[in-house]
Design a protein that fits this description.
10 helices, 6 strands, alpha/beta, about 210 residues
């Protein structure tokens, strides 16, 4: 996660949404950088811990942005990453695990350690389902993201591809997909809201202007 004082912007890093590429492209502009274990602070953690700190310490009230990916593709990216031969999770079990089985593991509560990837919905929302961000972009709307950042930073922002997940066939059966869509209906609904907003949803901004 990065915070930019001049641009009045906080970029929250949702895992497996291309955030690393943007962090590298913008690191020269960042005033505050959270890395390693704190790189992926959730929207709730930011709201509870950093909003008061930034306000008290810097009189800063940054707009918050994040990127959300198609839920199936985000889980598929996790699957390819976790089952890659060089992954620290690599084992005989992981290399032979199908994507169907991985998704089934993701949907367990609690998630098995190998399938413990959380969810984008829980990352982006508060416990009551409130979305406390001013800008949420669809991963697939890269031109929209780049245009927004280029306008905000006053320069052309074009990140290079970083940390792509290894390519591996990962078909998903209709039965498991239906179960995933049922269990994570709220996540799919949020993603649909972003897509219907043209790839750029502005929930907090809209509420403040209402």
């Amino acid at each position: 996660m990065q915070i930019f004082i001049k641009q009045n912007l906080a970029f929250l890093a949702v895992p497996k949404t291309g955030s690393t590429a943007y962090e590298l492209a913008l690191r020269g502009e960042a005033d505050i950088v959270f890395a390693r274990r704190r790189k992926h602070l959730t929207a709730g953690q930011f709201q509870r811990k950093l909003v008061p700190f930034l306000a008290d310490s810097f009189d800063l009230h940054p707009e918050r942005m994040a990127i959300m990916r198609d839920p199936i593709e985000q889980i598929r990216s996790w699957y390819r990453y976790r089952t890659a031969p060089k992954s620290r999770f690599a084992s005989d079990t992981s290399s032979s695990m199908s994507f169907d089985d991985f998704v089934r593991g993701v949907l367990q509560n609690p998630q098995p350690s190998f399938c413990a990837i959380g969810s984008q919905y829980n990352f982006l929302t508060m416990s009551d389902g409130h979305l406390p961000l001013e800008h949420v972009f669809a991963y697939e709307a890269q031109e929209t993201i780049r245009s927004f950042l280029s306008d905000r930073f006053g320069q052309h922002i074009a990140p290079a591809i970083k940390n792509p997940s290894p390519q591996r066939e990962a078909p998903l059966s209709s039965e498991v997909e239906d179960h995933l869509r049922h269990v994570r209906a709220a996540e799919f609904a949020l993603y649909d809201r972003i897509r219907k907003a043209g790839g750029h949803l502005q929930p907090e901004t809209a509420e403040k202007q209402a």
